[in-house]
Write a sequence for this structure.
């Protein structure tokens, strides 16, 4: 674009200088002065706008993908101006995943003390006590078994809360792997 404008400007200046140089050869003072007046009063043609390179489509916000019970939500991170995505189960932020982690929030439901997880029809994994991050977030974090969750059809959880209650979660993973694949392909900067 800059090259086009520069070329156009040089061409206009050259044609203007050429017009003034042609006035030099006129012998009559009056006619030569008229020639200069005409050359200096002529406005160069306005540069024609050349189309800029196609601008990228603005980033979509909100739901950008759906599969099964899962939807991918996308937004721009205010601190980094980078695209960020989360896959939500049944549109609720209480069960969500990134492209490599999986969270079940118990914020407002008693926090997390410990939990057991059962993937598909396999035996339940041993009781796991919540680590510091899980306690701080009031959420179960399944990043360490993400690959198993990614390939599964269903996950069941029994979560023991700080309030000495048990919360049961039965999560249908139909569409989960497709949502993760979408994020891996489309939610990178």
């Amino acid at each position: 674009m800059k090259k086009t404008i520069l070329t156009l400007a040089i061409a206009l200046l050259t044609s203007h200088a050429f017009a003034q140089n042609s006035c030099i050869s006129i012998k009559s003072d009056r006619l030569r002065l008229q020639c200069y007046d005409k050359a200096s009063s002529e406005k160069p043609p306005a540069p024609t706008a050349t189309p800029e390179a196609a601008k990228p489509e603005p980033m979509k916000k909100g739901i950008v993908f759906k599969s099964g019970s899962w939807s991918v939500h996308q937004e721009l991170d205010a601190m980094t101006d980078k695209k960020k995505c989360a896959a939500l189960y049944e549109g609720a932020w209480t069960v969500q995943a990134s492209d490599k982690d999986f969270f079940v929030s118990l914020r407002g439901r008693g926090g997390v003390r410990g939990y057991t997880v059962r993937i598909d029809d396999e035996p339940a994994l041993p009781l796991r006590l919540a680590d510091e991050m899980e306690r701080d977030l009031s959420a179960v974090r399944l990043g360490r078994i993400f690959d198993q969750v990614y390939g599964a059809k269903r996950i069941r959880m029994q979560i023991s809360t700080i309030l000495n209650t048990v919360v049961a979660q039965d999560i249908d993973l139909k569409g989960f792997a497709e949502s993760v694949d979408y994020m891996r392909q489309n939610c990178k900067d």
